[in-house]
From TrEMBL, chain A:
PANTHER family: DOLICHOL-PHOSPHATE MANNOSYLTRANSFERASE SUBUNIT 1 (PTHR43398:SF1). The lineage of its organism: Eukaryota, Metazoa, Ecdysozoa, Arthropoda, Hexapoda. Gene3D superfamilies: Spore Coat Polysaccharide Biosynthesis Protein SpsA, Chain A. It is found in: Endoplasmic reticulum. CDD domains: DPM1_like. Transfers mannose from GDP-mannose to dolichol monophosphate to form dolichol phosphate mannose (Dol-P-Man) which is the mannosyl donor in pathways leading to N-glycosylation, glycosyl phosphatidylinositol membrane anchoring, and O-mannosylation of proteins. This is Dolichol-phosphate mannosyltransferase subunit 1. Component of the dolichol-phosphate mannose (DPM) synthase complex. One of its GO terms (cellular component) is endoplasmic reticulum membrane. Its cofactor is Mg(2+); Mn(2+); Ca(2+). It comes from Nezara viridula. Belongs to the glycosyltransferase 2 family.
TrEMBL record, chain B:
It is a multi-pass membrane protein. Keywords: Endoplasmic reticulum, Membrane, Transmembrane, Transmembrane helix. Belongs to the DPM3 family. It comes from the Eukaryota. This is Dolichol-phosphate mannosyltransferase subunit 3. It holds the Pfam family DPM3. The keyword Cell membrane does not apply. It comes from Nezara viridula. InterPro entries: DPM3. One of its GO terms (cellular component) is dolichol-phosphate-mannose synthase complex.
Length: 241, 92
């Protein structure tokens, strides 16, 4: 166990991830146990019809009830409330949030932890845009929209962090609680607002380059409504912060 | 002050300065042949900022790291994880 007494609670909100969940748990265990970090994984399943929760129960039998905690909810609710729900049951002093579709690789968690210790940062944000980071599986259009949106965000908000829409982050627990309670946005604009509010409260933000592997091909994640939602969120933050 | 107000202040200062130069309240001793340059200065600014933005965004799209080795590593790990989890008794 970690000598400093730090504990890391990893929140995994899931919806129809029965294929990916075992892999991500296996990877987290590989990378964190090797480094002797004290950790727990909190799975917040929003009533997945594909039986994600049953798979999670199987995994709990393998890895133990002290490592994997199941905190399911009845139906699909917002991401923000999933975090609130997860934090309530978290026993760690640090919280890690990540997507459970394997686009966020657990190998970066030890890097987040080392970076946090290096400067006692309040927040560590994984970034696809800085040197050493990147994306895999994106076509020209997705890259263009991503880079364009990021350019506009940097120009208008000057947030002091390079990746606002990514959601692979480590927070001190009390910092995350305060940020969540002060954020109003929903969806992935919520992730942007978290960083902007963190700057407002003068929290320190460290960045770690991450490679983002997109295994879900197709247009599903980038429709016109996503762009409208982003534009609205950007303008909301532009006009209010 | 919100970011919106910061931008509005900046734009206000910019346009007031431009108007003062245009109406010769501020005399920069600009010769007459450069007069049309002063008149269209905001248009040139918008154009240059647009070109700059386009170049920066396109360069970043072009140089966006595709990290194929990360995708490959993940594929191998998925295979290894499935095998190991089967040994550990996972039924999926």
């Amino acid at each position: 166990m970690s000598s400093e007494g730090d504990k890391y609670s990893i929140l995994l909100p899931t919806y129809n991830e029965r294929e990916n969940l075992p892999i991500i748990i296996w990877l987290i265990d590989q990378y964190l146990r090797k480094k002797d970090y004290n950790f727990e994984i909190i799975i917040i399943d929003d009533g997945s019809p594909d039986g994600t929760l049953e798979v999670a129960k199987e995994l709990q039998k393998i890895y133990g009830e002290d490592v994997i905690l199941l905190r399911p909810r009845e139906k699909k609710l917002g991401l923000g409330t999933a975090y609130v729900h997860g934090i309530k049951h978290a026993s760690g002093n640090f919280i890690i949030i990540m997507d459970s579709d394997l686009s966020h690789h657990p190998k970066f968690i030890p890097k987040f932890i080392e970076k946090q210790k290096e400067g006692n940062f309040d927040v560590i944000s994984g970034s696809r845009y800085i040197n050493g980071g990147g994306v895999s599986g994106w076509d020209f259009k997705r890259k263009l929209v991503s880079r364009g949106a990021n350019f506009l965000t940097q120009l208008l908000l000057r947030p002091g962090a390079s990746d606002l829409t990514g959601s692979f982050r480590l927070y001190k627990k009390d910092v995350l609680e305060k940020l969540i309670s002060s954020c109003i946005s929903k969806g992935y604009v919520f992730q942007m607002e978290m960083i902007i509010r963190a700057r407002q409260f003068n929290y320190t933000i460290g960045e770690v380059p991450i490679t983002f592997v997109d295994r879900v091909y197709g247009e599903s994640k980038l429709g016109g409504s996503e762009i409208v939602q982003f534009a609205k969120g950007l303008f909301y933050l532009f006009a209010t912060t | 002050m919100t970011k919106l107000l910061e931008w509005l202040c900046f734009l206000l200062v910019y346009f007031v300065t431009w108007l003062l130069v245009l109406t010769k309240y501020i005399n920069l001793n600009i010769s007459d042949e450069w007069n049309s340059f002063v008149v269209y200065f905001p248009v040139y600014t918008v154009f240059l900022v647009g070109i700059y933005s386009l170049i920066v965004v396109l360069w970043r799209v072009y140089s966006f790291n595709d990290c194929p080795e990360a995708a490959k590593e993940l594929q191998q790990q998925i295979k290894a994880a499935r095998e190991d989890l089967k040994l550990k008794g996972l039924r999926i």
